[in-house]
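SEQUENCE WITH STRUCTURE:
===
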Amino acid sequence: MTSAGEYDLEPDPPIRSSNHAIGVIGAGAIMADQHLAAYAYAGFPVIAIASRTPSHAAEVASRYGIETVHDTPSDLIADERIEILDIAFPPDQQPALIRAALAAPHIRGILAQKPLALTLDEAIALRDEAEAAGKILSVNQNMRYDQSIRSLKQLLDRGALGTPVFAAIDMHAVPHWQTFLEEYDRLTIANMGVHHLDALRYLFGDPEEITTAARADPRTRFAHTDGIAASIIRFPGGLLATTREDVWGGPRQDGYDDDFFISWRVEGTDGVAKGTIGWPNGQPSTITFNSVTETGGRWVAPTWQTHWFPHAFAGVMEQVQHAVETGSAPALTVADNVRTMATVEASYLSLAEKRTVRLDEFPL
């Protein structure tokens, strides 16, 4: 096996800042098994937790040695020791928590979950309110910190693949839908496709247009419009990209041996890179690439030991820590996330009106 460093790739970012006190809201699986596991790994100080169910918060606090359990999220936001607020709450309830944190003088940075809000208009309003308050508001688009996507970005930035021609992200895996999603009219694109659309924006910039089709997922028992979805995205310069979010993935019954996976591929004028995201099977993500300028036309496959879940969440929090430390903008700005939200909104408009939608139809 060849390490990523031998090909000048940095799959995980360095921990530059780690001293600012964190308070977390939420005690579900994403917080308990991912955020807090990554923060323990990176050495970030989590000093308080609150949840909708105090007993759940107490259980998670005991698991991670968190000293303070607040009865309510409001009580936690009022805790003047907290510098960074990390929210893992349903998106219809998240904006109110963000606004309360923006009004709290002691809170310097906020890490929100994606989707930032249920509508693009609400996301734009939160962006503008954070700017007016002079506060750091960052959104947890953690696929940008997946080790294979970070490595791919580095290859693209240094021209190892030449000019990108075609890109694809293909998902066949069953997520564990949170129960609160049953109350919304949007499902797969807003909750899984948002990862892929944001990753494409991270890699290639803002798209020009998107065309989306979808059907219901026969496994999902609550009402929804976008179960299994597919999109075609065009970027300036002619790059064509596709995404597929198949949350069916085959029959669901005892004894059925599934083959869940998430894969990606980018083809350029000077090379090709392809890889997998390790989340569905608990393995590290992978990258394999072939570059006429860097590998002499040979396929190479650098490796690492870390995983998308949970290790990518360390990078996400680190960029907030560093922004608070230095007074600089975070890597994952709310302004940039609004542009991802616009891409999601364009995808739903394409689905509803059965047409290609241009991104400039959404003034930001």
Residues 143-307+341-361 form a domain with the Dihydrodipicolinate Reductase; domain 2 fold (CATH 3.30.360.10). The first helix runs from residue 29 to 42. Residues 58 and 69 are 6 Å apart (CA to CA).
